[in-house]
Amino acid sequence: MADRKLRVATTSLAGCFGCHMSFLDIDERLLDLLELVEFDRSPITDIKHCGPCDLGLVEGGVCNAENVHVLREFRKNCKILVALGACAVNGGLPAQRNHLDLRDILAAVYETEGGLARGARIPNDPELPLPLNQVHPIHEVVKIDYFLPGCPPSADAIWKFLTDLIAGRTPHLGHGLIHYD
Amino acid sequence: MPATMTTTSALQSVLARQGHDGTRLMQILRETQEALGWLSPPVLTEIARDIGWPRARVESTAGFYSFFHTRPLGRYRVLWSDNITDRMLGNIDLMQAMCEKLWLEPGRVSEDGLVSVDTTSCTGMCDQGPALLVNYRAVTRMTPRRVEAMVDLIRAETPVAAWPAEWFAVEDNIRRKDILLGNALVPGEALAAALERGAAAMLDEIKRSGLRGRGGAGFGTGLKWEACRDAMGEAHYVICNADEGEPGTFKDRVLLTRYADLVFEGMTIAGHVVGAKKGLLYLRGEYRYLLEPLESVLAARRAAGLLGGNILGQPFDFDIEVHLGAGAYICGEESALIESLEGKPGRPRIRPPFPVTHGYLGQPTTVNNVETLAAACLVAKHGGEWYSKVGTTKSAGSKILSVSGDVERPGIYEYPFGVTVQQVLNDAGIEGCTQAVQVSGPSGVTLGQNELERRIAFEDIPTAGALMVFDCTRDMFEVARNFAHFFAHESCGFCTPCRVGTTVVARLMDKLATGHGSPYDIDEMFKMHRLMQGASHCGLGNSACNPMFDTLNKFRPAYERRLKSLDYEPAFDLDAALSQARQMTGRDDAAAHLANVEES
Known about the structure:
By secondary structure, chain A is of the alpha/beta class. Chain A has helices at residues 18-24, 29-36, 65-77, 86-90, 102-112, 155-167, and strands spanning 6-12, 37-39, 53-59, 62-64, 78-84, 131-136, 146-148. Chain B contains 24 helices and 14 strands. Chain B is globular and about 90 Å long. With 600 residues, chain B is of the alpha/beta class. The relative contact order of chain B is 0.09. The chains are: A alpha/beta (181), B alpha/beta (600).
């Protein structure tokens, strides 16, 4: 592993990019990281589809058909797939809609809410991905190898996780890197 | 909304009867609910004010127990016992039939507020199911005809008290008696012998007898009583644990029905030994119907000078009260039971300190199983040495077994310790072949065919006495799935490994049941087993994965044949998850569908 850089892909599904921001918060350690890894598909590279990778980091849960396709692309290409942050791990904030009926939500947002244009309708362009009835954590759609909790996981947690993984150790966050505030 | 006049007067009489005492909150809530139907917010407010507790504490107790409702659940509340033995007798079909006739969904209250139908954990009628509770009264042996008649009575709003008495008949089904069930003691005989010996000598006899706790853990009764007796405190207490919640167990019900005198006498003897003036019997809410009969046994004992002041003319005062639980399995754990007796949610305490030094109201308390206390009477009468000669070296005396499931004669069997499981099966009558026996309920062990020569004794299989028998036609995966849901329902929610873990396991089992399983899910179950066993706060979480672990090891094909593939499988039907969006957008193009398995 040492003679070749680890290839890493990242994406955000039904997330807020907060986990990616937290990733960037590793600050100058990003330069150390770039000695060890290279990025495939990621907001950092703007590559649109991922190729064979060692590691995939997925932020956000699964809320629509496109999320499913992206997630499957990651699973197909990444040897190790990681759920990054609360939404990926258990659905998180977007899953708050799960106790409502999707039909009621669509009708309210596009048809009955005040301030809509006359004759407003639910968009049905085939270009648009359809939302799922409920938001799901990513492990309910593909096999996930590691879970990194936090909203977002702190930069230190992400750094510890990545350096463990790159060094061949089973990632272990330990005291202080998982907390609930 | 202020409480109305009638509400207030009903409530006040309950509060007066319970002495405006917050530690009696369980009884206050139960009696209030029996009078008013449900526990409305203004009623809880008034109770809190009256007993001088913060309202949040009253609400946390009211909200914790399955049998208390803080919203109206119908004037008739039907709860079908949902143990695996009820399942095997067809309870689900009967419940569905009842719901269809009432135009009702399980778990919902009818539009007119008349009735709700739901399931509940095992009600302890496994030898005479399918069973249910109607307004917390036990009904046994349900049939399609009874379902029809019951629906008619509900529709006609006939009071439950006027329903056919035979529906409420509970059989004892005692099939084999040994030293305990076959005893010839008359009320007061064992107590007189104990008082004659004196407290210290009686304790010696108990220690000599080798009597061990019959709740399953097998702690030495003499050791427990001695520790309680020696502990410093303002008062000492004796508690009889009759919260017989382990599915498949019903021996305490029979002891309290037919041998109540013996149980109360054992409590009195324990009181004399540890120096207590008060005993409490914690009766599970499912046995509500036993309250009045037990109260009258207590009254008779008081009249006969066997309870109250100067018992049998000696300077010894002792009395007993019956407290009712409200549908919480966890209260069978002794420290959770004590919490409940103090009017709190039944959450296990951190031990040590143990109840023998810091128990009920922080005072030295001995908590003993119903059967243990009854057995203590035999020791008082016949002496420790006599008792120790029955059974095996490390398990003195006899054990009462509750046998249910696929046997010809389900019921109560008492044997000296050391009996083999096969012997019990032979006596209970087996039709066809036996596939497995679940000993000690869901938290116990699953025995396969090749283990039936194992023995009921603390040296081999320690047990509170439940044997659920499964013949070769039964699906052991469904047995384990029933148990997984039981634990998910009964977890008290205090610690995360158990609260979340039991639900994760139940969902994994459901995923397999609906044909979406993969080997990863089985790996995940083993992971959960290790995690919950190591990290849970109490025994419930520690043992919640036992049935799954045992059946996975001994009946693995029952799981494997449900696996959809050897690859990963999503937890849900992906294409169906787009159904609502398709309906609302009118789309049906290729992009409006998802394959459940990725095309390669």
